[in-house]
Amino acid sequence: MRQNTQWRDLTRAQQTWIVLLSSVELTLTTIAALDLARRPAERLRGRKAWWWPALFVQPFGPVLYLTLGRLQEREESTDDDGDGRGDRSDQEADQPPGSESAGPPLHS
């Protein structure tokens, strides 16, 4: 029968790696939990109720949430008026007549 390994039985390098990786895991979980708590449900892939338990599946849950669970701004719908043209055309439509730009400046 194998004896349980105690902290004092580990080498200094093993203890260092455990402390380092544990702090990284704790930091990632904290960042993910704070983000999930503050982020509106519309800016997530999937339901918030599914992401909470996933955060505590270590070490993959927080990494998956931070990389795949959040919608980035470019993925969110920016079409406020439903015309299908998106945010840039909406800004141009709000400009007064005659203030349209002729495009980017030309360089010589």
Share of residues in helices:
40-55%
Main structural class = mainly alpha
Rounded to the nearest angstrom, the radius of gyration is 24 Å
Low-confidence stretches: none
Given the C-alpha coordinates, what overall shape results? elongated
State mean pLDDT (0 to 100 scale).
81
Kindly report how far apart the N and C termini lie: 81 Å
- Beta percentage is under 5%
Count of runs of 4 or more consecutive helical residues? 4
Question: Care to count the β-strands?
Answer: 0
Q: Order of SSEs, N→C?
A: HHHH
Query: Biggest sheet, open or closed, and with what strands and sense?
Result: none
Q: Overview of this structure, please?
A:
The protein is mostly helical and 108 residues long. It has a domain at 11-73. Helix content is 49%, strand content 0%. The protein is built from four helices and no strands. The radius of gyration is 24 Å and the shape is elongated. The mean pLDDT is 81.
Summarize the helices and strands and which ones pair or pack:
Elements lengths: L11 H27 L9 H8 L4 H10 L16 H8 L15
Helix pairs in contact: 1-2, 1-3, 2-3
Task: Provide a concise account of the structure shown.
This protein is an all-alpha fold. It has helices spanning about 10-40, 50-55, 60-70, 85-95.
